[in-house]
Amino acid sequence: MAENDVAVSLYAAHEKVYPREVDGRYQRLRNLAVIVLLGLYYLLPWIDWDGRQAVLFDLPARKFYIFWWVFWPQDFIYLSWLLIIAAMTLFFTTAVAGRLWCGYACPQTVWTELFIWLERWSEGSRNQQIKLDKSPWTWQKFRRKSLKQFLWISLAIWTGFTFVGYFTPVTELGSKLLTFKLGAWEVFWICFYGFATYGNAGFMREQVCKYMCPYARFQSAMFDADTLIISYDAERGEPRGKRKKTVNPIYEGLGDCVDCSQCVQVCPTGIDIRKGLQYECIACAACIDVCNQVMKKMNYPPNLIRYTTQNTDSRAHGSSKILRPRIIIYFFILLILVTGFLFSILNRTPLALDILRDRNALYQVVDGNLIENVYNLKLMNKDTRPHNYKVDVSGLPGIRTSNGSLEVPVDSGEVYNLPLRVRVDMNVIEKSANTIQITISSVDEKHTVTEPTRFLAPDPRNFQ
């Protein structure tokens, strides 16, 4: 290497982000979101519902309890439906308000906020944390760092324990934990989920949003010029510069930005919103809150940093279009999906019926003039209680089963195989392929399922 050559690294070493504490309208909304979402996560497994855990995904029994509903693997369509609704909701909210999900409801954001609270409680404010990290190791530093790690690890373990509590009854899981009788898989998932929480929310934090989350990369595909974004008003704020409160910025040739850098200090991803829209911005609006506080102290108008749109900025602070084709399309698709999902859930029958034809023979003639088809019925009782079910057939004159009225007991979750022989007088058959209905209904409740099937017979012209 020549004497005057300079080695330049293409990779910058990571610098820890110390988000400054802020108070304001948007921060209070974020705090409320953290309390509500984490409250639901940690409390739901402990709610008792009809003698069982309100939300429990019992994999060994293949039962998924969600309050008064019980779902089975055969109901997987509802999970797919729900995921489609979630994706469409994300598209809709992103088109309207940008990265609203990232700033207020993403698990990474929510848990990171909680870990930051614990960090501030144990190590102090932003300036105190920076000073503590730069200071040599003392008993005071060791005590504060140890307390933080204890709180973080305890929360991470409790998070992993709660996660497993959605799959193993949480009271049973707690009893196993206290008596050291946890299964290998339970220990694995508690440790795995706890470690993931500890690593993501405690150490990686903004790096997950900046480098690992795919949403940051494709969000621009869902943005348009009327999507709400957080933006710095450069026309009003520039040229920035420090000044006293009593100084009139117009006389000094300055904009409203006092270059205090507090918008950078409160940002959880460490960006400078004054440099324009950046993919690292998670739309938490902390910079809006802190900037408004500074503007208030300086007796300047608020909203130097604000929620706005690109069209609003380009129209000299005019209005933007909320109702536009993309939003309307997303809204109606989402409305149809949610309406259909709720209608299907509310009208769901805890009984399933599958009909399989006997492949050994299309039909057979019995007792001289009766055409018989053989079916294998699979009855699944998706209720939490056993039921007796009766079988009826209809669709052709005089249709009946070979053994008359049928009534079978089916236990909860049981798939009952029932061979069924259906007979019809050949004299009433007008074509070789006929549609009939097989109906299964419970004796004690009004659970009824009707499925169509084909009844085959020889060509009527051959026996007329």
Explain how this protein is built.
This protein folds into two domains: 335 residues, no CATH class; 112 residues, Immunoglobulins (Immunoglobulin-like). Helix content is 40%, strand content 19%. Strand 4 and strand 5 form a beta hairpin.
Defining key terms:
15 helices; five-stranded antiparallel sheet; 40% helix; Immunoglobulin-like; four-stranded antiparallel sheet; 464 residues; alpha+beta
Q: Mean pLDDT, as a whole number?
A: 86
Q: Sheet with the most strands?
A: 5 strands, antiparallel
Strand content range: 15-25%
Number of strands: 16
- Based on CA inertia axes, which overall geometry fits? elongated
What value does the Rg take, in angstroms? 33 Å
Helical residue percent band: 40-55%
N-end to C-end Cα span: 104 Å
Indicate the structural class: alpha+beta
Unreliable runs, pLDDT <50, ≥5 residues? Answer: none
| Count of spatially separate domains | 2
Number of helices: 15
Secondary structure layout plus pairing:
Layout: H1 25-43, E1 48-49, E2 52-53, E3 55-58, E4 63-66, E5 69-71, H2 76-97, H3 100-104, H4 107-123, H5 126-134, H6 139-165, H7 170-178, H8 184-204, H9 206-212, H10 215-218, E6 229-232, H11 234-237, H12 262-265, H13 286-297, E7 305-308, H14 310-314, H15 325-346, E8 351-357, E9 364-366, E10 370-381, E11 387-394, E12 400-401, E13 406-410, E14 415-425, E15 433-442, E16 448-456
Antiparallel strand pairs: 1-2, 3-4, 4-5, 6-7, 8-10, 9-10, 10-14, 11-13, 11-15, 12-14, 15-16
